[in-house]
Design brief:
about 20% helix, 5-stranded antiparallel beta sheet, about 150 residues, Cyclic Phosphodiesterase, Chain: A, single chain, alpha+beta
């Protein structure tokens, strides 16, 4: 079992991220026929904590969270094989304090250290490695407005 917390985005941000992926053929949009793609297939989010060290205090559901604008830094490849395209985000005080909150209040130990805030461009990233340096950063506000807790099975 895993205690998992993530930030989700307002509808405008989610739609903007989806349109950005379509325009630049990123993630699930990196396919020949884009006609059947839906915004909900992308499941944009930003993981705060993913911990196999569980806490009895941790409760599932929507948590209190003040909306926050996230700042994009660059695109990068993450994952054990560096084959997963992500949009790296600036680790500002709000994100760092939120991450540290889970460590201090719940005793969580992140499975992914160091903490590197990012949004995964879900799906196929084939061919993007060659053009990653030419990808523009999004020019719209990336507004997180929900903090979700979930207990997951591994």
């Amino acid at each position: 079992m895993i205690d998992y917390s993530r930030l989700e985005f307002d509808e405008q941000t989610t739609n903007n991220l989806f349109d950005f992926c379509l325009a630049h053929r990123l993630g699930l949009a990196d396919i020949d026929d884009q006609s059947k793609l839906r915004v909900d297939e992308f499941k944009f989010h930003m993981t705060i904590m993913y911990s196999k060290v569980m806490s009895p205090l941790f409760r599932e559901g929507l948590q209190e969270f003040t909306p926050h604008i996230l700042q994009p830094e660059t695109f990068a490849m993450f994952g054990p094989n560096e084959d997963m395209l992500v949009l790296k985000l600036h680790c500002d005080d709000v994100l760092n304090e939120l991450f540290m909150h889970y460590r201090s209040v719940y005793g969580h130990v992140s499975d992914f250290m160091p903490f590197r805030p990012h949004i995964t461009m879900r799906g196929n990233s084939a061919g993007v490695r060659e053009r990653i340096k030419t990808l523009p950063l999004p020019e719209f506000a990336i507004r997180a407005d929900r903090l979700i807790h979930k207990v997951k099975t591994a």
